Amino acid sequence: MTYGLVVDSPGPIEFYDALHAEVKHRSAGTADGLLLHVGRATTGGFQMLEIWESKEKFERFFGEVVLPAMEAVSGDRAPASQPVMEEFEPRGLVVPSAVIAV
Predict the structure, then answer these.
(1) DSSP secondary structure letter of residue 62
(2) How far is residue 45 from each of residues 11, 53, 85, measured CA to CA in Å?
(3) Which of 32, 33, 25, 3 minimizes the C-alpha distance to 73?
(4) Nearest CA to 85 among 19, 2, 1, 3?
(5) Domains of the chain by start residue, with CATH
(6) Largest CB tally within 10 Å, which of 16, 18, 66, 71?
(7) Amino acid 41: pLDDT
(8) Among the listed ranges 16-20, 37-41, 78-82, which one has the minimum average pLDDT value?
């Protein structure tokens, strides 16, 4: 079953940009099971929306790639408070392929 996640972070968009670049570098531009990733600036920081083939593939990628990338780019750009994460079950998704891009 597909797995969806929305993350609202109080961190600056520059933190998202640095994290995105580090994740792309560490993953060689691919993420097994990722169907969609969108990041955007918000008035309070940034937001990410992701759709995965399964929660298990998300958890593996997060643990193996995203967490180490977050450690590498944190510092003065890290959010002062924890992001808010909301899981959801995607419906009506049509995506032909996925590649991490700018």
Answers:
(1) I
(2) 5, 27, 14
(3) 25
(4) 3
(5) 3-88 (3.30.70.100)
(6) 16
(7) 97
(8) 78-82
Q: Which has more pLDDT, 31 or 96?
A: 31
Instruction: Supply the pTM of this predicted model.
Output: 0.85
Single-letter code of the amino acid located at 102:
V
Asked if residue 7 lies in contact with residue 46, where contact means CB atoms within 8 angstroms, the answer is no
d(CA 86, CA 99): 23
Which residue is listed with tokens 């909301």?
86
User: Which residues does residue 42 pair with via DSSP β-bridges, in sequence order?
Assistant: 45
Distance, in Å, from the CA atom of 48 to the CA atom of 16, rounded to the nearest integer, reads 9
**Which pLDDT tens digit goes with each residue over 40-93?**
999 999 999 999 999 999 999 999 999 999 999 986 555 567 889 999 999 988
